[in-house]
Design a protein that fits this description.
The strands form 4 sheets. The chain has a 7-stranded parallel β-sheet, sandwiched between helices. Helix content is 41%, strand content 15%. Strand 5, helix 5 and strand 6 form a beta-alpha-beta unit. It is globular, with a radius of gyration of 19 Å. The protein folds into 2 domains: 199 residues, 3-Layer(aba) Sandwich (Rossmann fold), CATH 3.40.50.720; 106 residues, UDP-galactose 4-epimerase, domain 1, CATH 3.90.25.10. With 325 residues, it is α/β, with parallel strands linked by helices.
Amino acid sequence: MTWMVTGGAGYIGAHVVRALISAGLDTVIVDDLSSGFEKFVPEGVPLVRASILDKAALVDAMKTHRVTGVIHVAGFKYAGVSVNRPLHTYAQNVTGTLALLEAMAECDVEQIVFSSSAAVFGTPDVDQVTEATAKAPLSPYGESKLIGEWLLRDQEVATGLRHASLRYFNVVGSGDAAVYDTSPHNLFPLVFEALVAGKTPRINGNDYPTPDGTNVRDYVHVADIAAAHVAAAQRLEAHDSIEPAYNLGSGDGLSVAEIMTAVASVTGIPFTPEIADRRAGDPPRIVANGDLAARDLDWKMRHTAEEMVRSAWEARLRAEEGSAE
């Protein structure tokens, strides 16, 4: 049985591939390398360089590699940018998912784990987001992920597709120093690049109604996220009961100030963050309850804040050493 990982050459997808290998599951990667890297692909894992918009290529890959399940990680993942590029976002995340589901139906592939997002919730006015919390996405990105979940739901009704969507907030850290977060929009890379450049990292607002005045968010380690994807795949493969969606949340979250403290401790670079104005629309706290995922997917927070930062920093240093060679 072979699992296809779309976007398997990207930051999260490459960790999912490694988790599948560790679990003894065969895998094939489909990635157009628009944001992924061939160097992230483990030796011996087939890489099909193709877009998820290319249904014919997906069908060929599924037949060639005898795919029995899909973990769908590929997509355009920049919520802020999606506001200015809505058509591109919908093409990649909605039309791409539609093409993937059509290819699966043609090849009789009947199980999929979908990498969704907590962006489907928007900015809910609750202390803890649960799976039942109202969906109110605020960006084309969040909307596209919610539509992806609807497509899976409707395909289940039509064909009996077995599926699970995994929602999460801020993915950080590294489970393999050879794989690192390359996003120009995520907190950890932004902070690291500022420090390396001799600049002072910035916090947007410190007057929120939180214990230290800074935003509280779910920061979850990428290796834990990857493990949950594999657990969902194994549950589908075993025909065990499974929920349509799970929140991969910490339950309590970390503040931006706590992250900054951990960064200073791990890097050995002392700094006092600059305090900038609040960003419009930033809620004080968004944290998800992960009880359902803990029950079914062995979900848990296995890393402290410092461990998450350390793994990310070590991968960042390794990447810099590699580029200097």
